[in-house]
Structures are given as C-alpha cells and as structure tokens.
Amino acid sequence: MEPLLDSDKIKTTDKLYQQIHQINVEYYEFWKENTLLHWDFYLSIVLAVTPWLIWFLFRKKGSEGRLLLVGSFVVFITSWLDFLGVILGIWHYSGKVIPTIPSYIPWDFCLLPVLTMFFIQFKPDIHPFIKAIIYGAFISFIGEPLMEWIGLYTPGNWKNYYSFPIYIVIYFISFKISKINTFKTI
User: Fold this and answer.
1) Which candidate among 5, 90, 115, 127 keeps its CA 20 to 30 Å from the CA of 171?
2) Cα–Cα distance between 7 and 13 in angstroms, integer?
3) Residue 128, Cβ neighbours under 10 Å: how many?
4) Residue 44: which of 100, 90, 110, 101 has the closest Cα?
C-alpha cells in the first residue's frame, strides 16, 4: 500500500527520528555510567518516594479521590509543560530516575502534585488567591533555585519569575477541580 504522504517527507522525517534515536542512545549510555546508582540518582529516588509516603500518612481521610484528581491534573499539566521546556531547550535535568520521558519524575509526578494536594487540604479557609501566591512563590523562588543549587535542574534562558504566574494558574485550576461536586456513583 502506498502512503498518502509524500515519500520525501517520510524519508526526511525518518532521518530526523534516527538522529533523535541516536542522541537517546548516547544519553542512555551517559546516564548508565554517570547517574545510575550515583548519589543524584538515589536523591531523585528519595524525592520521588518520600512525598507520596508523607501524603499517605497525612492526607485528609475521605477526600483521597478528590485530592488524587487534583494530583492527576498537576501531573498531566506539569509533565506536559516540563516536556515542552526540555524539548525547546529552555531547561534540562540531571540525576534522572530513568533516562527517558517524562522529563523529571520526582518533580512532575511527586513533589508538585503532592505539594498541591497539601496546599488544598491545609487551612482550607484561607483565600485561594493568597494560597496560590504562596504556592507559586514557594515553588518558583525556593523549590526551583534549590533544585538548581543541588544540580538536578539547569535552567537555560528560563528565569524563576517566569514560573511564578504559571504556578499560580496551576494552583487556581487545581483549587477549582477540588471543589467539583458532580461526582456520582458509577
């Protein structure tokens, strides 16, 4: 069967994907020799497991489903934005748990969703705008610089204050999701 796409376009795309594959192979070899079973690898494992253990112990009982929905949203949006940042060359990570996508598992799948869930369940009477500013400031001006200082996160042209409004929006959407009252029994 003959493809509908132009054969030159398919060949060019194939050539580009072969180059991407080769870079991934090279990065895997680098990761295997320089990250796997080194201190930064173990730190990343701790950063991936610890937030979920803490959440399990201190979560608001009876609200797990609602909080996990919020956490899932945060995983989805932050991993997508993180992937874009890495692909566009805006930042990159070292000490990865696995040398593939997602960009950095402890940040996107553990630290950010668990922190968001805790912010939502802790002091729920505080105005969400105040909590969003604190959330955005904490991640942008403490979390990111700390990860950079450790060496796990390397921003290129990215500045921490670019992240601040993004995290505020992520928190607001997460807060709105946490207030959804349309859950029915299946």
Assistant:
1) 90
2) 10
3) 18
4) 110
Which of helix, strand or coil describes residue 168?
Answer: helix
Burial class of residue 134 (count of CB atoms within 10 Å of its CB; 0-12, 13-18, 19+): middle
Do residues 13 and 65 touch, judged by C-beta distance below 8 A? Answer: no
Instruction: Count the residues in the chain.
Output: 186
Confidence label for 4 from pLDDT (cuts 50, 70 and 90): confident
* Mean predicted lDDT score pLDDT of the chain: 92
Q: What percent of the chain has pLDDT over 90?
A: 76
The residues spanned by each domain of the chain are: 1-34, 39-178
Confidence of residue 6 (pLDDT cuts 50, 70, 90): confident
CA 168-78-28 angle, to 5 degrees, is 150
38-68 exposure pattern, b = at least 16 Cβ within 10 A, e = fewer: eebbebbeebbeebbeebeeebeeeeeebbe
Specify burial of residue 27 (Cβ count, 10 A radius: 0-12, 13-18, 19+). Answer: middle
Classify residue 98 by burial, with Cβ atoms within 10 Å: 0-12, 13-18, 19+.
Answer: middle
* Band (184; pLDDT cuts 50, 70, 90): confident
